[in-house]
Inverse folding.
């Protein structure tokens, strides 16, 4: 049973206020993640402590980096079940994990931080892993552009 909205909404806003588009339905997830050119970040959000202490803050810090993905998406595990299952379908060969942070390049999965890569580490460690992936797989942007 999903948690009540008054508990979950602040956790959603931690990501959406960063400009990350929330995918609430299977159709939104499929349309946003399939055939995506360029780079895309997918954050599988969660109510757990490692999402609150490590994943969401790590994503926030990583997005301050000058090199970042072209598109930013999130789904909320345990809340938007169909959207999350659809998004996980773009992570073939990996078991369901939440939180998780995936980076795609031209529709291909190129980097994935699973719960085991997030839990027990600091938000700075997560951000460092993400920015290294951004530097490797995302296009550099000119200063002052989005």
């Amino acid at each position: 049973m999903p948690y009540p909205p008054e508990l979950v909404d602040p956790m959603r806003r931690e990501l959406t206020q960063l400009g990350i588009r929330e995918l609430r339905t299977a159709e939104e997830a499929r349309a946003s993640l399939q055939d995506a050119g360029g780079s895309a970040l997918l954050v599988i959000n969660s109510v757990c402590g490692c999402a609150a202490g490590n994943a969401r803050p790590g994503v926030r810090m990583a997005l301050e980096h000058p090199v970042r993905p072209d598109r930013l998406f999130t789904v909320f595990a345990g809340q938007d079940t169909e959207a999350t299952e659809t998004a996980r379908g773009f992570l073939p060969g990996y078991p369901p994990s939440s939180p998780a942070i995936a980076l795609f390049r031209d529709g291909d999965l190129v980097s994935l931080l699973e719960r085991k890569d997030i839990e027990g580490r600091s938000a700075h460690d997560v951000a460092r892993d993400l920015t290294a992936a951004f530097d490797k797989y995302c296009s550099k942007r000119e200063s002052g552009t989005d």
User: Anything to note?
Assistant: Helices lie at 5-16, 26-33, 49-62, 81-88, 115-118, 123-137. The longest helix spans residues 123-137. The first strand starts at residue 21 and ends at 22.
